[in-house]
Amino acid sequence: MRINIVARGQRSLQWVALVAVAYCLAAPVFAGEGCRIKGIWRSDEARTIADMKKHSQLTDKQIQALANGFFGKLVFEFTCSKARTYREEEGAQSAAWFPYRVLERGSDYVVLGDSKSTKAEGLRFDFVGQCFKTPVGNLGFSEFFCRNR
């Protein structure tokens, strides 16, 4: 009888060890998901203009004005707790870091804001492959940003 208890106890220990190993292997994956936005992201002019032409509430004249070099210059830079944004020609040193917090997170998006922001006031980033898109005001289209490689 004592042998069965020991054998059962060993199986329990093996199960606990297996779960612990699985957790340790998976922890970096889950931790990385929490900071998916980390990195340097550059505005993608072509994708933004295509989205603007397809979904915009702008007139043709306004679209033409914005399609001539307005997009494609902005950079977002994120750590897991701070962000900064700047125009490429100004350089990173021109921008101050500011803290942010995650207000909401889903499998393909994140909503960020400052310490006083509500979810409705936050800025939404929808992930699309190696890029994300974020709404441009209430104009009906999004600006796309892709990871800097």
Structure report:
- The chain is of the alpha+beta class.
- The protein has two domains: 1-33; 36-147, Lipocalin, CATH 2.40.128.
- 34% of the residues lie in helices and 30% in strands.
- The longest helix is centred in the N-terminal third of the chain and has 32 residues, at 2-33.
- The protein is globular, with a radius of gyration of 23 Å.
- Helical coverage, percent range: 25-40%
Strand order, largest beta sheet: 4-3-2-1-9-8-7-6-5
In total, how many beta strands?
Answer: 9
Under CATH, the topology of the largest domain can be stated as Lipocalin
Kindly name the structural category. Answer: alpha+beta
Strand portion, in percent? 25-35%
Largest sheet: 9 strands, antiparallel
Helices and strands, in order, run as: HEHHEEEEEEEE
Low-confidence sequence ranges: 1-33
Number of domains: 2
The rough form would be described as globular
Give the terminus-to-terminus CA distance: 63 Å
- Give the class-level CATH name of the largest domain: Mainly Beta
Give the rounded overall mean pLDDT.
81
* Alpha carbon gyration radius: 23 Å
- The name of the CATH architecture of the largest domain is Beta Barrel
The total count of helices amounts to: 3
Explain briefly what this protein structure is.
By secondary structure, the protein is α+β, with helices and mostly antiparallel strands. Helices cover 34% and strands 30% of the residues. The protein has a nine-stranded antiparallel β-sheet, with helices on one face.
